[in-house]
């Protein structure tokens, strides 16, 4: 994230460069900023010579050299500016407000399969559902375009609301609160997913949308596809406070997961294991975690009744299956404790 200065005025540029050097603030200077520069700006400063550029942002400051006049207020109204800063009188205000606003970001958790049959999507949905007890405004983000959307698992595929393709063609910026209010939701969990009939550009980078959601919620859970070394996935992993790698309790699954963990740990330190106990295997969850040299976050029981509930469109609210429910609830509680420790540090 950065401050964005929209101007052609060299006097304004010189003033802002001095202030950004003192405050060590990342500053982007453009006379016609692109959509990415706008989306990643926490505040936009505009001088009168650029008021007709067409800036759409929630935090706009009109910057004036010298004194204000009737035209200044007309420009401010045109921009829907939150504030007018007059140079040099407003230097102290600019020093304070050029820096990024202090905000407590929501926790970001990635869930990624270490092998086929790991049940990562079920884990993501179930964890989001149970985490509502400990977090306000839980958001589930579906980044696996290779499979059907998580709206099917939650039983809300027919519910209206914004999907990923709505953001890929978006121009200008949008706040995390507006995104959150526009998403479909069920049982207190908001969902950002894709739609089978709509494609998203390969060049679309979802990280800015996820960052906005972190600003507006206490927990963002990202359902990730199988690991690749693509730049977009690595960027998402770096946003995560913790990544849960899901794996089935099989020899082949453990071997595959070992490679995935080694790749992920190049980009993020906090990696933990969630094991899906499979019928017919005698592998112990703790021993698997020890062999992979990662902490064991939890083990989830396989149960065909889960699929029955999902197939009937009931979501997770009606799933009360003893071990499965207890284990997911314990994992959500562990996540809340980790969040408290991180914020206290």
Automatic annotation (TrEMBL):
Please provide, alphabetically and separated by semicolons, the GO molecular function terms listed in this UniProt record: ATP binding; ATP hydrolysis activity
Domain Rv3660c-like CheY-like N-terminal, residue spans:
6-103
> Looking at the UniProt record for this protein, which Gene Ontology cellular component terms does it annotate, in alphabetical order?
cytoplasmic side of plasma membrane; cytosol
Q: Which SUPFAM superfamilies match?
A: P-loop containing nucleoside triphosphate hydrolases
Instruction: Write down the InterPro entries for this protein, in alphabetical order.
Output: P-loop_NTPase (IPR027417), ParA/MinD_ATPase (IPR050625), Rv3660c (IPR022521), Rv3660c_N (IPR059050)
Q: Name one GO biological process term.
A: negative regulation of cell division
Alphabetical list of Pfam families matching this protein: Rv3660c_N
**The name this protein goes by in its record:** Rv3660c-like CheY-like N-terminal domain-containing protein
Q: Which organism is it from?
A: freshwater metagenome
């Amino acid at each position: 994230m950065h401050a964005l200065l929209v101007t052609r005025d060299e006097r304004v540029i010189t003033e802002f460069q001095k202030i950004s050097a003192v405050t060590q603030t990342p500053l982007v200077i453009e006379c016609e900023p692109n959509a990415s520069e706008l989306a990643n700006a926490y505040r936009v400063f505009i001088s009168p010579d650029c008021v007709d550029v067409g800036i759409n942002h929630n935090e706009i400051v009109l910057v004036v050299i010298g004194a204000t006049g009737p035209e200044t207020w007309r420009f401010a109204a045109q921009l829907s500016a939150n504030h007018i800063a007059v140079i040099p009188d407003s230097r102290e205000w600019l020093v304070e407000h050029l820096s990024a606003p202090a905000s407590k970001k929501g926790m970001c958790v990635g869930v990624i399969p270490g092998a086929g049959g790991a049940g990562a999507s079920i884990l993501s949905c179930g964890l989001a559902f149970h985490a509502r007890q400990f977090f306000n405004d839980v958001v589930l983000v579906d980044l696996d375009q290779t499979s059907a959307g998580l709206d099917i698992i939650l039983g809300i595929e027919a519910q209206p609301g914004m999907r990923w393709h709505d953001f890929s063609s978006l121009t200008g910026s949008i706040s995390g609160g507006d995104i959150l209010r526009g998403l479909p939701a069920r049982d207190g969990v908001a969902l950002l997913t894709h739609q089978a009939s709509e494609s998203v550009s390969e060049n679309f980078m979802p990280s800015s949308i996820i960052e906005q959601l972190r600003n507006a919620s206490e927990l963002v859970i990202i359902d990730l596809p199988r690991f690749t070394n693509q730049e977009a996935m690595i960027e998402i992993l770096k946003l995560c406070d913790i990544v849960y790698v899901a794996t089935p309790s099989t020899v082949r699954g453990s071997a595959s997961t070992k490679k995935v963990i080694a790749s992920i740990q190049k980009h993020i330190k906090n990696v933990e294991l969630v094991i899906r106990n499979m019928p017919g295997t005698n592998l112990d969850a703790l021993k698997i975690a020890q062999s992979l040299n990662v902490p064991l976050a939890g083990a989830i029981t396989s149960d065909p009744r889960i699929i029955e509930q999902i197939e009937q469109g009931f979501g997770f609210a009606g799933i009360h299956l003893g071990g499965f429910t207890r284990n997911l609830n314990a994992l959500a509680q562990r996540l809340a404790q980790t969040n408290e420790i991180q914020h206290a540090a």
